[in-house]
């Protein structure tokens, strides 16, 4: 019997490559979700064209049309709630969300961040990796909490930094692997295996001692 589909809403601000990866995985049946809508804070974001072409309802709002960040976020998440998602996925969404909204959606919102958290929250993660001469870099999926990129980490993917790497080359090399990480993480949530409990991330009802490690080409190690 097929898995029931988890209703999700995706927030994105840019080109939409990760959004497209989610759509492809859902269409193939490997990701048991119902992507009910895309919402963005940029009316010119290319991700809107992807949503339109794939028949996904899309909402674009401009922050400058609202009095402040809190007012924008309240309106945005009123629109999110209208689609009745059980999970909100931040897939390249480039705004910090008001703490009151984050609290209201506790345990129901995840974010894909391009660093091995807790290293390098916020912006310019690849620049920081190169400046620190780190031997590895990667991406993390975490539950969203009031503190920026500081919520409990569900899973990570780690890649080596190569000689001659630039910010652009790091981003390009990571892209397919971080998308795979996000798809695999959402699949676990959709199948009821991952949840946020009182002591942090739980897998099959047991607290995770450390984030799951995503292995390119094979999925999460040990699962």
Describe the protein in words.
The protein has 223 residues and is of the alpha/beta class. The chain has a single domain (6-220), classed as Rossmann fold (3-Layer(aba) Sandwich). Helices cover 32% and strands 26% of the residues. The protein has six helices and twelve strands. It has helices at residues 17-28, 47-54, 69-82, 99-104, 125-131, 167-190, and strands at residues 6-11, 33-40, 58-60, 87-90, 109-113, 136-143, 153-160, 194-197, 200-203, 206-207, 212-215, 219-220. The strands form two sheets. Strands 3-2-1-4-5-6-7-11-12 form a nine-stranded mixed β-sheet, with helices on both faces. A three-stranded antiparallel β-sheet has the order 8-9-10. Helix 1 (17-28) links the parallel strand 1 (6-11) and strand 2 (33-40). Helix 1 packs parallel to helix 2 (47-54). The longest helix is centred in the last third of the chain and has 24 residues, at 167-190. The model has no long low-confidence stretch (mean pLDDT 96).
């Amino acid at each position: 019997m097929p898995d029931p589909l988890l209703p999700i809403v995706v927030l994105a601000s840019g080109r939409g490559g990760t959004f497209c990866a989610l759509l492809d995985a859902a269409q193939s049946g490997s990701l048991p979700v119902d992507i009910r809508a895309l919402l963005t804070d940029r009316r010119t974001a290319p991700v809107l064209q992807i949503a339109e072409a794939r028949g996904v309802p899309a909402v674009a709002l401009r922050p400058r049309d609202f009095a402040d960040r809190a007012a924008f976020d309240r309106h945005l998440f009123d629109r999110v709630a209208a689609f009745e998602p059980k999970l909100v996925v931040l897939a390249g969404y480039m705004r910090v969300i008001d703490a009151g909204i984050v609290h209201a959606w506790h345990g129901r919102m995840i974010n894909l961040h391009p660093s091995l958290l807790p290293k390098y929250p916020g912006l310019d993660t690849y620049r920081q990796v190169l400046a620190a001469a780190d031997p590895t870099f990667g991406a993390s999926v975490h539950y969203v909490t009031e503190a920026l990129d500081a919520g409990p980490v569900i899973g990570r993917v780690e890649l080596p930094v190569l000689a001659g790497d630039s910010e652009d080359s790091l981003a390009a090399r990571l892209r397919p692997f971080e998308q795979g990480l996000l798809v695999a993480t959402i699949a676990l949530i959709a199948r009821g295996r991952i949840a946020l409990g009182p002591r942090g991330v739980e897998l099959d009802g047991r607290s995770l001692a450390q984030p799951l490690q995503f292995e390119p080409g094979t999925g999460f190690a040990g699962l």
